[in-house]
Amino acid sequence: MSQSNVKKYLENYGNTKEASIPILQAIQGDYGYLPLDILDQVCEESEITKTHLYGVATFYAQFKLTPKGKNAIKVCKGTACHVKGADITIVALKDQLGINMDQTTEDGEFSMETVACLGCCSLAPVVMINEDVYGGLSSAKVRGTLKKYGKE
Amino acid sequence: MEKNNQHIKFVVGLGSCGIAAGAKELYEELASKMGNNCNASLSHTSCNGMCFKEPIMEVFYPDGNYLMLGNVHKKDVDKILEPLLSQGAIDEKFIIENSRQPDKKEEFRQKQHKIVLENCGIIDPDDIEPYIENGGYEAVKKVLNTMPPQQVIDEIKTSGLRGRGGAGFPTGLKWQFVRNNTGEKKYMICNADEGDPGAFMDRAVLEGDPHKVIEGLIIGGYAIGAEHGYVYVRAEYPLAIKRLKSAIKQATEKNLLGHNILNSGFSFHLKIKEGAGAFVCGEETALIASIEGDRGHPRLKPPFPAASGLWGYPTNINNVETLASIPWIIKNGAETYASYGTEKSKGTKVFSLAGKIARGGLIEVDMGVPLRDIIYTIGGGTSSGKPFKAVQLGGPSGGCVPENLLDTPVDYESISATGAIMGSGGMVVMDEDTCVVDVAKFFLTFTQNESCGKCTFCRIGTKRLLEILEKITEGRGGMADLEELEELSGKVKDLSLCGLGKTAPNPIMTTLKYFRDEYVEHIKENKCRAGVCKELIKFSVIEGSCTGCHLCYKNCPVDAITGEAKKIHHIDQKICIKCGMCYEVCKFDAILKG
Fold first, then answer.
1. What is the ipTM, given to two decimal places?
2. Which residue of A has its CA nearest to B54?
């Protein structure tokens, strides 16, 4: 399976340095994170060196080297969200999930990270769960929102 | 443009912000409840800028009547669908505009002048036809058929258009440099890596009117002699990427893009590059490094990209809003464009209004309009009704402008004179409950995090600045810290290579300039007047107001609150982490913060 995936990435995006970011994005799209053995295989089959690929993977905030939860929570930490109380929403999320930022719950259901700005500033504070964007997510609404994703 | 249709037309705004507010559920509910009603149709558009009214829907009647409704949710559909279909009475609370009540004008829409946003929230961004019906791609035709490249550049120079990404460099001049440089290949790049937290105008344009940006790119490519282009979009904007991809495909199918455009002999191929979450990639040399597949490190200029850019070829990079202004200028003439705005800042500017503002959203005004008009006339003042404190312009690279400078006109020079920058146009409004020291700390956390690490002063200097701010907000600061902040800010500014580091101290320098007394209060009195800095405040129960509803008890994450139902509750200060949750959830204003 992974062998054929690697072939697919190289066919779709090329096997030179220029393809590094699209390849990493495709791997993360398929696996939810960047498994090191897949990165190794990409480097073996292409002109991209391991130092280069690892360097790119660790530079950009989008790339994760550890698996994410089934439901990925992104908390916006943009300016508007900050002044509208994103920190309080974060306390509520941490409290409900029992994890800190950049961690995954033990059952693998939820992981949580902060992002710079989701661009929905007028609806601050904003939280994105998977592909769904929630505006005005004050701390009081956290519990109800997590329920939609199966949180007891 | 829908009025010729013989049926009632419903249009729902489906921009990212509208969707976040529930517009998609509204759209689906309307679709299911309308069923096969052949007297009415349903379609979508993007954001019309009135984020504070989302979800928004419009109704166009065959007789020319028109309604715009706001804050309409899925649950309201049962109530309003029947009266909408029969032109019956609708609850006033939903109505933003009604053609039969011409006096009822939304104040948010006053004083605005839409050039870049002319189609946003009006056309269906997933379909090329409405764009073409609204005069789209006429500018490309005009340029390819009647204007030699140099004439295009001269036209842009005459228009006075300056880069809308923040720096304000004259666009025509930038194009001229690339045109004058010879190269076997040239590249035209659109910088859509809108990273300033608090800015969302580029996202709205790409989601609402993607063809306008493509059209600007084709014209630019033709003018400078580039046959290849890239749009570098940040990955956090999935909807913008989706709509842009579809727009590129449709334009290519119509031969408005690609090989031998409209048989003119000019070819222009456009690709999308998705960013991967690095603020520094908004800097043009870092952006180029990222397209080339490297870590996004900026490099020393010169050589400027105009001489040696992508893969070493002459490259021109423009911001989304800049490119979206181009077709209008070509169609309506440079002189007309230059007649708007001020002497040195021509045309219009898009701003995103957010933070503690009553009417937040996306606006476009003539350059030179005073800040006060934007914040009060258009934005309606603060959302809390509490006194206005400052507005942050230009994101982490910008600064806070206080109340007494609100008559400053928005143009590049006047804004710079305040110590802030025009930036890409993000405006975050703060009221008296916002602590400016905390805001400076917020921005430094951001820039420190986003520093690529190449320059010592940006990498370590911002870290030291942040540590000093942390000390002050935690009540451990001394007066000498203020001097150190000023001195180190100057060094970070002078000794960083790119804009990120050069501007990173701006939020500190402007807040120190205009709100020094608040810094001093934090240091000398251990007081945060806004009640934000956790170490300097405490939460307690106002006994006379507490009803014993138990809500704070249930929500406290650390079980610091004790009390039985219907009896007065207490907060144990030793356990309290000052998260403010009790203050937030209390329905009786029974929690005292201070």
1. 0.89
2. A123
